[in-house]
Automatic annotation (TrEMBL):
Annotated Gene Ontology cellular component terms: glutamyl-tRNA(Gln) amidotransferase complex
Active-site residues, Swiss-Prot/TrEMBL: 52, 127, 151
Ligase keyword on record: yes
Protein name: Glutamyl-tRNA(Gln) amidotransferase subunit A
Highest taxon above the source species: Bacteria
A GO biological process held by the record: translation
Function comment: Allows the formation of correctly charged Gln-tRNA(Gln) through the transamidation of misacylated Glu-tRNA(Gln) in organisms which lack glutaminyl-tRNA synthetase. The reaction takes place in the presence of glutamine and ATP through an activated gamma-phospho-Glu-tRNA(Gln).
Assembly and interaction partners: Heterotrimer of A, B and C subunits.
GO molecular function, one term: glutaminyl-tRNA synthase (glutamine-hydrolyzing) activity
Signal peptide positions on this chain: none
Organism: Vasconcelosia minhoensis LEGE 07310
Top EC class for this record: ligase
InterPro entries: Amidase, Amidase_CS, Amidase_dom, AS_sf, GatA
Length: 445
């Protein structure tokens, strides 16, 4: 049934770069056989999932929406997708994204534009726009994305679904094509908080193949739902409301906060004064890490190779032809910020700002259990409407601080604007308090 939806909707949506119908049907067949034989089946048995195309899938093309990796077939499987397969989930395809996950609208994909299911003239958000659109439209039940500066939460908000970026280190990054390694996290999309919780449950937990993976007990996330929020302290981040925020977004978030109060939560306003420096620090740190990570695409080790007479000109031509404009911009910014003489002024300074933002959160979590903000300052915009990179970067102001501090953040739907476009509410928790995000989110939805 989901493959039928994919077939019917793809000509409009373009959520998927690859659809793996044959493998999916074969896997479904195997699960049927297991059931018939009375064998044990996993908690996600038969559930169709979409996988962002920057997660390596053995034998299945993994492109990162880049011309560079257009024909790259990984010889190994990412831990997250491996765990999904072990849980019985069926991968129905690889979803579209901004090239190497750099962007906020999926318009930076080298292959296709993904449409927002609520209005195909609009973007689905990004960079995990394909996963968000596929879940919102019913092409798949759940999906995995990655979030370096908002790439799960913002598309979830634009497409009216639930999306969660876990605590840094909760989900193994093994097999996730690296963008900015100190910020990248894999996380779930679902149409409900419960679906997102079930998906996170399947992929979370220690993995010796990722040295930043946390060795912690994973709670049963589906056991943290409660009907009332009595005793919970919720803080509204003052700096994320007011100037620059779409009034419809502000109204919807205010209504959501009121509802949280009616559910029994104690609500107060919290100031995070360093928040406004998040975007500036991120757009030094993320491109710096990206410039180092993307050095591996040299025409020798992976993907594209443009033939040239000398080694140096082969490197240059391959990179010139393989990367799109946004990726090149990030490599240039990162290389500049890391170069001798500029390192202290830019990279080191940005790392200090990162610490200050972290301290804002530490203070806040001394007073409240969960922080609340809009996920994005606007609803989904029309494709082509935000075309200068700086304006796009500025739209990340609410999601980025969460990555800089390594905290869990979730976006869930909290209403619509006058054009009927979904609005996202962001919940932020302290380190490893995904359970609280699920508790509050589930009580609210
Ligand atoms: N929009 C941000 C960027 O372009 C975030 C991307 C992401 O989280 N992968 O870098």
């Amino acid at each position: 049934a989901h493959l039928d939806s994919v077939q019917a909707l793809e000509p409009t949506l373009h959520s998927f770069i690859s659809v793996t119908a044959d493998q999916a049907l074969a896997q479904a067949q195997q699960i049927d056989e297991k059931i018939a034989a009375g064998d044990e089946i996993g908690p996600l048995a038969g559930i169709p999932v979409g996988i962002k195309d920057n997660l390596c899938t053995r034998g299945i093309r993994t492109t990162c929406a880049s011309k560079f990796l257009e024909h790259f077939v990984p010889p190994y499987e990412s831990t997250a997708t491996q765990r999904l397969a072990e849980a019985g989930a069926i991968c129905i395809g690889k979803t579209n994204l901004d090239e190497f996950a750099m962007g906020s609208s999926t318009e930076n994909s080298a292959f296709q534009l993904t449409a927002n299911p609520w209005d195909p003239a609009r973007v689905p958000g990004g960079s995990s726009g394909g996963s968000a659109a596929a879940v919102a439209s019913g092409e798949c039940a759940i999906a995995l994305g990655s979030d370096t500066g908002g790439s799960i939460r913002q598309p979830a908000a634009f497409c009216g679904v639930v999306g969660l970026k876990p605590t840094y280190g909760l989900v193994s990054r093994y097999g996730l094509v690296a963008f900015a390694s100190s910020l990248d996290q894999i996380g779930p999309f679902g149409r409900t908080v419960e679906d997102a919780a079930i998906l996170l449950q399947a992929v979370a937990g220690h993995d010796p193949k990722d040295s930043t993976s946390l060795k912690v007990e994973i709670p049963d996330y589906t056991q943290c739902f409660k009907p009332s929020l009595k005793g919970r302290r919720i803080g509204v981040i003052q700096e994320t409301l007011g100037e620059g925020i779409d009034p419809a977004v502000e109204t919807a978030v205010a209504a959501a906060v009121k509802q949280l109060q009616e559910l029994g939560a104690e609500v107060k306003t919290i100031s995070c004064p360093q928040f406004r420096y998040g975007v500036s620090a991120y757009y030094i740190i993320a491109p710096s890490e990206a410039s180092a990570n993307l050095a591996r695409y040299d025409g020798v080790k992976y993907g594209l190779r443009s033939e040239q007479s000398s080694l140096l000109s082969m490197y240059a031509k391959t990179r010139a032809e393989g990367f799109g404009p946004e990726v090149k911009r990030r490599i240039m910014i990162g290389t500049y910020a890391l170069s001798a003489g500029y390192y202290d002024a830019y990279y080191l300074k940005a790392q200090k700002v990162r610490t200050l933002i972290k301290q804002d959160f530490e203070r806040a979590f001394g007073e409240v259990d969960v922080l609340v903000s809009p996920t994005a300052p606007t609803t989904a915009f029309k494709a082509g409407d935000v075309d200068d990179p700086l304006s796009l970067y500025l739209l990340d102001l609410m999601t980025i601080p969460v990555n800089l501090a390594g905290l869990p953040g979730m976006s869930l739907p909290c209403g619509f604007d006058a054009s009927g476009l979904p609005i996202g509410l962001q919940l932020i928790g302290n380190v490893l308090r995904e359970d609280l995000l699920f508790e509050v989110g589930h009580a609210y939805e």
